[in-house]
Amino acid sequence: MSTSIAARQSAARRCAASRAWVLGAALLLAAGCGSSGTSSPSSPAATSEQSTSQPSPPRSFQIATPDGQVSVSLDGNLPPNWPPTFPMPPDAMVAGSGSLGGSTSTGQVAVFSTQMSGADTLSYYTSNSRLTTTDTKSVGAGTTYVGSTKITAPYTGSVTVAGRSGTTYIVVVLKLPGASPSG
Asked: In Å, what is the CA distance from 6 to each residue of 1, 3, 11, 15, 134?
């Protein structure tokens, strides 16, 4: 009987940890999606401080992924040597790239945008026959949806999806082979 109680308590702790991770990702995304404070000649920094009826699209943000903290730059450029065969939803567009922190390994980070819902986007990856995924987690609905899944084959890494200003962002982390420190 005590084994059954211990198993239920362990399952409850794993469930709570999963919820905490996804909630943390949602909070980081919401807190970090404002203007990065940088400006281009065509968009002065003062513009981000003016009140408008439509929020300006984020230029950078941070999000927690299963592979670590990712700082994203929405500059429209993929990281060098991004695999062209990585599966993407049909309407996905390149949004930018990022850097991985808080991890013991290194990897490439690519960011895409889509008009698909967050749940449909995550489902695209978890049901894709060209990928093997595990540890799928999600929280929220509609524009507050955040979800992630780990990728174990043919790539190693993760996909995290989150909504912001009517757009679903897809943050893909692909770990680089042999990049983990020994120890």
From this structure: 9, 5, 9, 14, 24
